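Hi R.,

Here are the chain sequences for the assembly we discussed:
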Amino acid sequence: MIHVAPVPAHFDDRTLDQFAQTLGPWPPAERLLIDARGTTWASPYGLAAMLTLGQAIAELKLPKPRLAVPESDDTRSYWARTGFFHHAVEYFELAGKIPKRSGDAPGSTLVPVTAVRAAEDVHEVVGRVQEGATRILTSELKLEAKAVMGFAMALSEACQNIVEHAGTGGWVAVQTYMWQRRLGRKVAVIAVSDAGVGFRRSLEASEAKKVGERWGDGAALESALLHGVSRFRDPGRGQGLAGIKRYLLRWQGKISIRSGTARLSVLPEWDDDVPLAEHLPFFPGSQVQITIPAQEAPAR
Amino acid sequence: MRERIDLRPLLRETVTSAYNHLVTRPTGISLRQLIEARIGTNPHPTTQLDFGSIGLLDYSCADEIVAKLLLNAADDRPRYLVLVNVSDTHREAIDHVLETHRLTVIAVPDDGAPPGILGWRTPDLLAAFDAVQRLGAGDSGRLADALGWTIERAADALQSLALRRLVQAASGTYCPLPLL
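And here is the predicted structure of the full complex:
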């Protein structure tokens, strides 16, 4: 038997819940067929989440899922150029025509889909952004040099959450694109996803009793993101997310973290998302999205 | 007397990356251990950490290098730490992590601006620090005259600077640390 899970046509942070719903109970009792044939676009968040799903299934030693790749040539080509298929082949049995990865990532890609397993990977990702992305961030997003450094710091801290807390590897991708409908401006987006234990399990030993009956994925996210709680006793811990929040406050950015069945966001004025969404369909690991808008007036 | 430690060569010993960024907690821990070893063999009481060839410094690395270095030195024989060639972005990360620990350090900016204090501070601490830098060695009476304070207020501020190892204290006199 095989369980078919269709990927939304437009696969991003807003449609991940819909995709998670189609997966059914976790862990899946049957082999999965991830059907992306009708998918025409996926954000870095969507692609990183998809790899996380494959990784989580592999770590559970369940049968390798099949992934039916998009029918659209453009979409397939784009996924190849972001590096997605390069990693996906390890976790999925790919069904469909797979383009060879050309040398050039799309122009909007600041960091292609990249595995993060150790501190050295974080060095490489941050170095690559500092080296290659500064021009794009300053010219296209009108970020000041200081904001570009802050962007790299946010990226570094977000990636470190994988190394420090997840207990397994994860994925990062960074891209700029035009948010015409949502914002009317260009944005830079950092997407980080890991297949680890999630915030609730990471903080359970130290926080569950304190929080009491409300303890769950949502409360764990609040502890980490709003109160700077870390599973380590060292008071210097938990500063990474606090630093990201400070940076985002200054540059009107947004951070959203999904873990297990909850998603918590720190919202700028321009976003109409709910701060806390609970009782969502389960998705393995944790997914972080950081969005920095171009520093200019909205298009009229 | 002081020793200056350039962080770039130490970073090269710590990670294989070709980049000059101080990022990640494990990198910070390794680098701090190298710095502590250098300080341990250094006969001079003052150590300057030179950030001049460092690009990015993230919060985790700032915590492991600067905050933990100050915390670990707390019970040691009198040691003084000064950060030199600190950029705006370095300053932001260091300031944030030191405030969390209620620690303070002297930083000399890379743009020629006067030295300042990063981390936890009060208006009196800042005023006293600036005055000691300007006036040079002296006692609480001299500081009180310069700032129009009572002797007690000046003495409190100087003692606080000395306890935080932002000035050197000896027999009731105080002098600035070597910053060049």
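Chain A touches chain B through 26 residues (CB under 8 Å). The longest strand of chain A covers residues 283-293.

Let me know if anything looks off.

Best,
T.
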